[in-house]
Amino acid sequence: MTNFDRALGLMLGHEGGLSDHALDRGGRTNLGVTQATYDAWRRKQGVPIRKVDQITADETRSIYRADYWDACRCDEYPWWLAYATFDAAVNSGPVRAIKWMQQGIGVPADGLIGPKTLAAVRRASPPMLFGVVKARADFISDLVRRSPSQLVFLKGWIRRLFDVTKGALDL
């Protein structure tokens, strides 16, 4: 099993099926893929738009691979960093996830994967995971403070941060 397949399985355990929560800023989602993301992916494939309710397992895998895993260059990271970055990208976008990863490993957080970031990735050690998770937790805290309506999701986000930490470190 590849690191991508392993990460995808863990991440999908958090995403569940069809969801259309009125307060979810992502809107209608299925398997964690928003309607907007699905529409963009189908346009790139040259196929007609359809409801995210109809997304297939192969489409889901392709979207997560190209738009999140590959966009963050997770194949170039050790497992613990790849999984944490991938999961963050799914929740908050690749650029933000890369910035959190960069903060955690101690390089300027510009959201770009360049030679300095890759060199730091090669030197990174698992205890640095906590810096990555802290950056994500700080964002969540600020988000809930700025938008109290998002408090409804806080328990799930905290559980997910714990589970990502546990999965990344194979606890």
Task: Provide a concise account of the structure shown.
This protein is mainly alpha-helical. The chain is built from 8 helices and 2 strands; from the N terminus they run H-E-E-H-H-H-H-H-H-H. Helices cover 62% and strands 2% of the residues.
Give a description of the structure.
With 171 residues, this protein is mainly α. It has one domain: Chitosanase, subunit A, domain 1 (Up-down Bundle). The chain is built from 8 helices and 2 strands. It has helices at residues 3-15, 35-45, 57-70, 79-92, 94-105, 115-123, 129-146, 154-168, and strands spanning 29-30, 33-34. A two-stranded antiparallel sheet has the order 1-2. A hairpin with a 2-residue loop joins strand 1 and strand 2 (33-34). Helix 1 (3-15) packs across helix 4 (79-92) and helix 4 (79-92) runs antiparallel to helix 5. The longest helix is centred in the C-terminal third of the chain and has 18 residues, at 129-146. The mean pLDDT is 95.
